[in-house]
Design goal:
14 helices, 0% strand, flat
């Protein structure tokens, strides 16, 4: 009887997981399929899960709309990779300073970080743009990269991970052995933080790669356009929108995100396993 219940539970669990996996993958598959269909098929025919034969036609239309995927991918990659590195490293450094050092304003500083998390970016964008304009940083990737050093959500996540996984005795032992503070952080703390850093790297990369609002405000030079800006301009034709080309542009935008996830997902799994062992 117990074996039957256990088998039924496993079958139910696997069935639910399979359904959820299909529902998660289905929108992306539909996007990939629509990238191979023309506008008439997308608008007039029923939803299809089978690829069509108009991929190269859509590619010609896409390239004919002054859409330069190589330049867009390069610009987005520069901004996203640099932003991710800044976010992950400096957030881990800030979280380490809050966690490992007992200084007077530690709690108020952490409270301030939590308060900043509640402020929408749109509230400060006018002042931010005016500041960047006055110092001549518009049409400059650094205006999109440098602000990512201050990432309150990442700092909060890193601190919580340290509280669960980082023994302060390890830091004290390194200090007793004569290791400098930066050596301790770079050589001892960062390897322990790999699961948390990988998780935040994925979130930061996806957020930076998909960002449209701030790059659209700061970047007005065509040579500086990122992929989301280029894709948003594909629907600028008031006479006709080629939806197949739009879906192809979206597909090209999404592919690097999948690659980043597959490269870093094993670290997330390690982090989950580590948390399970400690629990």
């Amino acid at each position: 009887m117990k074996k039957n219940r256990s088998l039924l539970f496993k079958v139910t669990a696997y069935t639910v997981c399979l359904i959820l996996a299909i529902l998660s993958v289905l929108p992306f598959w539909i996007m990939f399929v629509n990238a191979t269909r023309d506008t008439f098929q997308i608008q007039q025919e029923a939803l299809s899960l089978v690829p069509s034969s108009h991929l190269f036609d859509n590619l010609k239309i896409l390239l004919g709309k002054t859409f330069d995927p190589l330049k867009g991918l390069t610009n987005s990659m520069i901004v996203s990779v640099a932003s991710t590195l800044c976010t992950v490293y400096f957030s881990a450094l800030t979280a380490y300073a809050i966690f490992a050092y007992n200084w007077k304003m530690r709690k108020p500083f952490f409270t301030l970080i939590l308060a900043v998390m509640m402020i929408p970016a749109q509230v400060s964008v006018i002042g931010f743009y005016q500041f960047m304009y006055k110092i001549g940083m518009t049409n400059n990737f650094m205006a999109l990269i440098l602000p990512t050093i201050a990432a309150p959500t990442a700092v909060f996540f890193m601190r919580q991970f340290m509280m669960a996984s980082l023994p302060l005795e390890l830091v004290e032992a390194a200090r007793i052995d004569g290791a400098s503070e930066f050596y301790t952080f770079n050589k001892i703390i960062l390897p322990i933080m790999k699961p948390a850093m990988a998780t935040q790297a994925i979130f930061s990369f996806v957020s930076s790669w998909n960002s449209l609002f701030l790059p659209l405000v700061l970047l007005t030079n065509n040579d500086k356009y990122t992929m989301p800006i280029m894709v948003s301009l594909l629907r600028g034709d008031i006479y006709k929108t080629e939806y197949g080309a739009v879906y192809l542009g979206l597909t090209l935008t999404v592919l690097p995100i999948f690659i980043a996830y597959f490269l870093l997902s094993r670290y997330i799994i390690e982090g989950v396993a580590l948390g399970g062992v400690k629990g």
